[in-house]
Backbone:
């Protein structure tokens, strides 16, 4: 239940405290039939109302309106979206040169956010709850409701995923009734733009192939998705009770990748059980291993981070948006990934790691 925010003495809105319990989790989010916005949860309304309020108050770098969107012809059903202003107005990504780069207080970090940029403090009632999360606007949004999920920014942790941070973000996903609310993480070398621990949440009102594609089991709790835009390891939570163990497994796997010199991205979406076939609408958590991408911005083409790997392509220029094909996009996405024999060997390593 969220407490109402109030105006601060400086005229900026205060954040809301959103305290939730098990009764607030949405076990079965809406499907894509009908209008996804017709049955929003209390969490959805609190986030979107606050987000819209900040847009009206001018806290963002640009005003986000309806974005041209099209599904590329082809079996992968890639969702292309034109967002010129994000490309031209966003803060330049920080220079990343290491998979274990320490936090640097001299550069931009989330302790510098203005008070009005923070929307909610998510806190689960109970003694076994994950750490609280701050929900802040992404000042250069991809889509409506694009937010940053910040686990205790004052701790000044670098951008390396932790199980408590991931659990808090995935619990937020279970608080949403909207099928298009997604959560994700870009690691260092995986196109993270700020080296301060954060995850992304956003609403994309389009289905993606990764929600329903059947997976090949590797061991109990770990599968591999192959017939998707970017082959990924898949873990699945039927409900919130499965999250503590799942988050530990994801972070153990991510640490193994880092130790092997690989970068990673994580994406979570409502979707079918790994075997597919309409078995449910739990939470699919995808983990991608990739060659590290060091340096600053990727240029004016397709920047491959969590969205692109999942099949959602925010594009910076109209000519690219109108001409890009599925084949071209898949070529750009997959050049960052491991060849299949190497991916399968890595899968064997993860099986041994997670079965210990």
Residues:
């Amino acid at each position: 239940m969220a407490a109402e925010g109030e105006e601060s003495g400086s005229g900026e809105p205060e954040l809301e405290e959103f305290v939730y319990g098990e009764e607030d989790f949405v076990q079965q989010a809406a499907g894509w039939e009908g209008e996804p916005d017709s049955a929003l949860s209390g969490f959805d309304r609190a986030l979107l109302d606050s987000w819209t309020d900040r847009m009206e108050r001018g806290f963002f770098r640009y005003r986000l309106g309806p974005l041209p969107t099209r599904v590329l012809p082809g079996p992968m059903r890639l969702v292309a979206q034109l967002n010129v202003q994000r490309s031209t107005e966003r803060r330049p990504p920080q220079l990343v040169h290491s998979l274990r780069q320490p936090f640097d207080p001299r550069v931009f970090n989330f302790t510098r956010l203005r008070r009005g940029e923070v929307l909610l403090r998510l806190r689960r009632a109970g003694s076994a709850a994950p750490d609280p999360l701050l929900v802040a606007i992404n000042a250069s949004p991809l889509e409506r409701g694009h937010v940053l999920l910040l686990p205790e920014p004052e701790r000044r942790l670098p951008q390396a995923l932790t199980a408590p941070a991931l659990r808090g973000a995935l619990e937020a996903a279970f608080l949403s009734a909207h099928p298009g609310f997604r959560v994700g993480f870009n690691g260092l070398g995986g196109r993270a733009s700020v080296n301060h621990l954060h995850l992304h949440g956003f609403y994309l009102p389009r289905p993606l192939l990764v929600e329903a594609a059947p997976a090949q089991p590797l061991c109990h709790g770990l599968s591999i998705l192959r017939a998707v835009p970017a082959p990924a390891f898949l873990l699945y939570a039927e409900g919130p009770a499965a999250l503590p163990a799942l988050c530990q497994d994801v972070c153990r796997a991510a640490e193994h990748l880092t130790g092997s010199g690989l970068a990673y991205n994580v994406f979570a979406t409502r979707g079918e059980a790994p075997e597919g076939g309409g078995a449910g609408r739990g939470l699919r958590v995808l983990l991608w291993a990739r060659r590290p991408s060091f340096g600053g911005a990727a240029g004016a083409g397709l920047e491959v981070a969590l969205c692109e790997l999942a099949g959602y392509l925010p594009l910076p220029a109209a000519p690219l948006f109108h001409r890009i094909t599925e084949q071209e996009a898949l070529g750009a996405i997959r050049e960052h990934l491991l060849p299949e024999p190497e991916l399968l060997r890595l899968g064997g390593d993860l099986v041994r790691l997670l079965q210990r």
